[in-house]
Request: fold
Amino acid sequence: MLLSRKWLSEYTKIDASPKDFEDVMTLSGSKVEVTRDPGAEVRNVVVGRVVSIEHHPDSGHMWVCQVDAGQPEPVQIVTGAQNVREGDLVPAALHKSVLPGGKKIEKGKLRGVLSDGMLCSLSELGLDAHDFPYMTEDGIMAFSPEDAAGYKPGDDIKPLIGADDSIVEFEITNNRPDCLSVLGLAREAAAAFGTELRLPEPSVRGGGGDIASRLTVEIANPELCPRYTAKMVKNIKIAPSPRWLRERLRAAGVRPINNIVDITNYVMLEYGQPMHAFDYACLAGGKITVRTAKPGETMKTLDGTERSLSPEMLVIADGGKPVGVAGVMGGENSEITEATRLAVFESATFDGVSVRKTAAALGMRTDASSRFEKGLDTENTVPAVLRACQLVELLGAGEVLDGAVDTRAGTYVPATLKLQPERINALLGTDIPRGFMAETLIKLGFAVAPDDTVTVPSWRADVSHYTDLAEEVARFYGYDKITPTLNPGSETAGGYSEKQRFENSLSAAALALGYSEIFTYSFIGTSDYDKILMPADAPEYRSVTILNPLGEDRAVMRTTPLPSMLGALANNRSARNDGVRLFELAKIYVPGADDRSLPDERIILTLGAFGGCDFFDIKGAVEELLRGARTPDVRFASGGALPSFHGGRFARIFSGGTEIGFIGQIHPNAAKNYDLPDAYCAELDAELLLSLRAPEPRYAPLPRFPSSERDVAVVCDASLEAAELFAEIRAAGGKLLKSLSLFDVYTGSQVPDGKKSLAVSLSFRDDSRTLTDAETDAAVANILAAVGAKFGAALR
Amino acid sequence: MPPGGGNYAVDKSCRLQYNFLLTSIRAATHNFTPKGTAMKEKLTQIRTAALAEITAAQSPAELEALRVRYLGKKGELTAILKQTGGLSAEERPAAGALANTVRSEIETALDASKSTAEASALAARLLAETLDVTLPGRRAASGRRHPMGIVADEVKDIFIGMGFRIAEGPEVEYAEYDFDKLNIPPNHTVREWSDTFYITEDESVHLRCQTSPVQVRYMEAHRPPIRIISPGRVYRKDEVDATHSPMFHQVEGLVVDHGITLGDLKGTLNALVGKLYGGNTKTRFRPHHFPFTEPSCEVDVECFVCHGASVGSGSGCRVCHGEGWLELLGSGMVHPKVLAGAGIDPDEYSGFAFGVGLERLTLLRYGIDDMRLLFENDMRFLSQF
Reply:
């Protein structure tokens, strides 16, 4: 909301610097974004009267003007403009002047003739033809006698072009549509500065005949249109608005059009009540019906676009056709034109949600709809329409008919509540006197009875509870005056939950293993599933889908973290980083049975790596993570590779019988889709890890007897998986075999084709005595016999 | 220190002892037999020779050889001692005493020289083993914590220290929890399709716009006193640019108990700001509006780069752009309707709530000028923290 300080001063006189005004308004709840001074740069530009004009001696299209600039002698200014007339009042930028945008003007010679400044056009002063409709854009500004009344040569130009103002931009919160108006902000400012508030009291002479015989209004959907007030004006004379009105519109960021349109905009800005004007001649049957659209109805709105209306949209219709989309935009079929003689002013309130949805559906959020959607004051329609009619009379734009058509459902009953000063102080932690509370509320338009009954003004629908009153009191008392305390309430034991601690430990372990933490978006595109080679019939392809995504690449909630991880790896690859190790601990979103059931949001630990690593590097990290997570009975099972992975370098990871994740090299085709070299990823389901986690370890006494070590190399079929061999070794080793660790895998000339050698260190120990060499050798022999029998494996 | 110098005192005391003994022997055996006299001289010779050779010895090995030569089973001193049997009964004790004294003197000298030699050998070895300690270490590179993770942990720790627990909840959420129970009216702009990502046409399910629904769910499941923060991902329909992201992280907080006041809110948030930005950082509580709190306020912190010095300067500050304040938090007293909606009696309890964007805290903390960097995960960026 843009507020002109000049306009504001009409209702309350506030003598404060821009900075002080900003601070006081901001700290009382009307947040100032920025203050602009439209004339800040303009210097030494004055009103000039053209005394005489002569042809430039050396140029056929230039003129040498003598200009009375309020100085003893006329100033000579050369201009190329063709519209200069003797006697015109024009803007003269004198020697050493500055124009908007910082352009400096100095005297100089134009084809040999001295020019002591410059006569200005609209654009040179930052204006256009909407500001001065009677002027031409490609010539010098020449002020009309009405506009220039009271100005004489030498006067500063700024007041004449509205550049002597200060424009304050406010951020108005949703709950205060009343502050989307000059009057609303004036009320706030007067309360904040303690100044007197003088509100306009619109009065209309009327005399143009009675409205009742001409117009009827029917509201078919009162729940969507609580009140519809109309007045009529005859003998409309379309003309430009006067300068003061154009200036105020411009200060508020609205372009002047013509007197009737400008009046509706002016009242919207001043009262916060959007208005619309219809050409009565276009209303069939002299009738207005506020109803929802009929199926298949269409209408061309004022912006020239044909709109398809749907039955939940509220429209303003005449006897048959729609003539406006309620609260959003009028129809072209009933627009005010030069030919309009009889006009209907609409001042109504509509249901906010309905307006919001209609505007959104039609893709046309307007100044009006953005106000209506916040829910407007039903008691504002009459003062606003009276103000409009007063302006019609003031501007000589037409004759106002007597009476109004005012249709509404029910009657207005003001809301009341109790002040409860003690309760307010208890909530704020203050000791504010009741008197201050009452005075503050009264300044804001509330009534406070001696029994503490507070009557809420109609424009403050946001106030319904004592806490709302507490806010009104607090913001004028000053939030800064409230003493900070650390609450003395009951003690609570803070801390992480077990799940949070577990997740923190997973992150810490991944970091310790050299993997860096990443954050990626939860939404991806289905094309990302294609990029990781996920078949369209895979269950993971079905995802929670965003109906209004920012783009197709962010349209679904991921069911796998893989595309996000590969994307992050790819970013690093394209940045020429090498040896990259990343992890993310974040959610995937597994859809529920239908849209209405929330997805299962599972926390997945994802590892990703490329550069200077192979499968066993990332597997080692996973094994170490699982050890730290106390995951019992971990097993890596080959086969059944997901399509995203290399078929021969993939393992599903189990804890007991539960699959907890997988690991593998990314399929070369998928890697290619991300411009990645050999890359490796692993996923672990953090929630499963927590649920499977083994109990905390209990202390076991340290061995009292030494262990015996034996290194054994076994030759077996190359296709035999180490895990199978090791399982057999463990089984045959029995309880004496305390540990087994692989130290070499060999294939080559020293072993037959189709065979491999696996060399392991075995450690044997008995907890109750020292093993003899013979016993250890027997255990080894037993193991060799077992693997020989089962796999045909033999000692190398 | 001169070679062997450290053993001077030992040598000297031995020598004194020897001289004393020699004198007393002379006194006691003024009438030594020739045999006794010869032995005495022989001992004196051995002593002199041994001490000289010990002093001259260079290495522990040479010293060991001297030990064997003089003190070994077949050593010279041992040989002499065997001859004491040929002396008279009167001479024997004195000669024995003299021999033992010589022996102990030689042993002492040997030990002293040996430790000196070992010390020099060790010193020489250490010198030879000198490293260029400025060569780089062999690092086991650990991973880097994302800056947002660092700041999130810090915020969590601050609140845990003040007795808060950490609550979590779904990101794909019912409008009932994210809007209705938070007192967000049906006509609020946040409900627009241009603002919120919808999952169902009937607007009943969407991606949460804030982590406040977690507070509602927590209040429904727990009785006061409640002190929680709810960090997590939230979603708003903003195009990606340097200061916006359609997905970002919030940390929201909630305190509900008997007699909680706006003053408590101020005190708690001042404590947060003090811990994040230093105890003297000024705050400004500014009235604002949120549907779920009443009264509501936004909290600004004094710009910690210019400390307000850039206000009105026109030149501006790169962080606060000449405003002197940085908008940091939204907060307020929990709306009675929100309490009641979650089954907590607003006549008995009151509370405050607040929310802060983790991305914003992170950008401000490290002087990062583009939010997109947080989601690109480029190691050149991550390795800076």
